[in-house]
Amino acid sequence: NKQRETSVTFRRFRRRHGALSSHYWTHVLGAEAIKKGLKGAEPTDLAVNALGVPMKQQEIGFDVSSTLDSLDDYLNTSRVHILAICLAQLEAFLKEIAYCVARLRDPSPRIGSLSLVAEAMAKPILGVDSLPGPLDYSESFLDVSIESQIKILKSAYKYRCAAVHNGGYATPRTRKELGRADLLLHQKLSFTWAELKPILHAAFEVADRIDERWSTKGIHCIECEIELAHQKSFNKLPDRKKVWGVLGSEGFKLPSRQ
Length: 258
What we know:
Elements: H1 8-38, H2 47-51, H3 64-105, H4 116-126, H5 132-141, H6 147-165, H7 172-178, H8 193-214, H9 217-233, H10 243-249
């Protein structure tokens, strides 16, 4: 089968999304290395001395016992951070692709902006700084079937809000919103890799299906237009004779030069 030509918007998402798993397993590797390095050390010794790392004691003055005790919490915090970043990246992807699709459908197209009609069409995504609503609207606006993924991601977003807004600790509201009668007041919310993995997968599937539907020549042209506008805002617009070469080198699908 011929490999599909993906959009730059999707490729950027895929690269950033893939890095999240790598980051997490680097954290796991670090935790395991610390456990191995502190094996057999006296519990009251300073961890930096036992590991022989060039760090000042005042920077990390924890003893071996407290350092080992903190590793599980460290990895749990890492998973919660990755959850929040994953959902934020998907939200950004939806906004970027919704803008492109709105430009493509715009009955009165103008370079660099949407008409009032196109803006209204995309407003449920572009005008909302959250994920559940835009996900629901994406099914119809972007013409994709992502019902099962939406269910997973909506549940994940509830957890993300509880963790981020309350600093990662349970409150009466948290218990009610998450439907978790087992949570104790002020208990730290825990999140396992087994719980995080399907969320990462669902987020990728949403972006992949949207790109499969919308990675067209029209979208590729609009991506070029948007990129040049961004470059201009950063005073990095290439010389006119070099524009096509610069865009091509960065993976953009070039439109006709006419």
